[in-house]
Design brief:
This protein has 263 residues and is an alpha/beta fold. It has a single domain, classed as TIM Barrel. It is 49% helix and 14% strand. Helix 2 (30-43) links the parallel strand 1 and strand 2.
């Protein structure tokens, strides 16, 4: 069984909401990046999402763009990111998702990427900018290696489009909570109940809500309907300020408060 499936089944049986934490590989350098990721895992992250730095991250806001630039300036590459995953996997039990854009993955080769990602210990890939109609080759490579093919569903996606996107999905569904790019918002998130219902009508996969979540209150709000929340920009900002573990614990406490209310 894939680690992602096992993790979501365990959280569901415990009545817990999941915390998916995103950090960019190689930011601010590979050694410090690895240390930060271990801190995040030790502090309460259930699933680690590792971003492959890319020069043109179209879905990402200024915080993650800056992290990618710092990493690239220090020589971060997809190959080095896979090596990082392999080192983490030596003593990390949590699922690891590789997040990235099509260009580096295409240049590496989809079959080679799936092979090497699985060998390193990754559990799935989340590719931002490959339309469903063009995912056939990478989807086949991922399936062959038992890697999850994690889709993103936008808040503007029509129900019929959602159904199409989820036809070959696995692992979990990434529900984008806001229009626009990544980055924490200071106000409340839009009500996503209808979006989550549309996803659940098409798939039994767990749903993780992301984009715009940076505070404990927002995480708890999103987790009212989702199975997990994804936090990236807020973790990078906290890491830059030396407060990563504190931010993870804040988010974890907010999510765990939902579990305590249901018992």
């Amino acid at each position: 069984m894939n680690r992602l499936t096992r993790a979501f089944e365990t959280m569901a049986s415990q009545g817990r909401k999941g915390l998916v934490g995103y950090l960019t590989a190689g930011d601010p350098n590979m050694a410090e990046s690895e240390r930060r990721m271990r801190d995040a895992l030790d502090s309460g992250v259930d699933i680690l999402e590792i971003g492959v730095p890319f020069s043109d991250p179209t879905a990402d806001g200024p915080v993650i763009q800056a992290a990618a630039l710092r990493a690239l300036n220090m020589g971060a590459t997809l190959s080095k990111t896979l090596d990082l995953i392999a080192r983490l996997r030596q003593d990390c039990a949590q699922p690891i998702v590789l997040f990235g854009y099509a260009n580096p993955f295409f240049r590496y080769g989809y079959d080679a990427l799936a092979r090497d990602a699985a060998q390193a210990g990754a559990d799935g890939l989340l590719i931002v900018d490959i339309p469903f109609e063009e995912r056939g080759e990478i989807a086949a490579a991922l399936t062959k290696r038992n890697l999850a093919n994690i889709p993103l569903v936008a808040p503007t996606s029509a129900p019929e489009r959602v159904a199409t996107i989820l036809e070959t999905a696995s692992g979990f569904v990434y529900a984008i909570t806001v229009k626009g790019v990544t980055g924490r918002r200071d106000d409340s998130l839009p009500d996503q109940a209808e979006q989550i219902r549309a996803i659940r009508a098409c798939s039994a996969l767990p749903v993780a809500a992301g984009f715009g979540i940076g505070q404990g209150t927002q995480a708890a709000q999103a987790a009212q309907t989702a199975d997990a929340v994804v936090v990236g920009s807020a973790l990078i900002e906290a890491a830059q300020a030396g407060r990563l573990a504190d931010k993870v614990r804040e988010l974890r406490t907010a999510l765990d408060s939902l579990s305590s209310r249901r018992t």
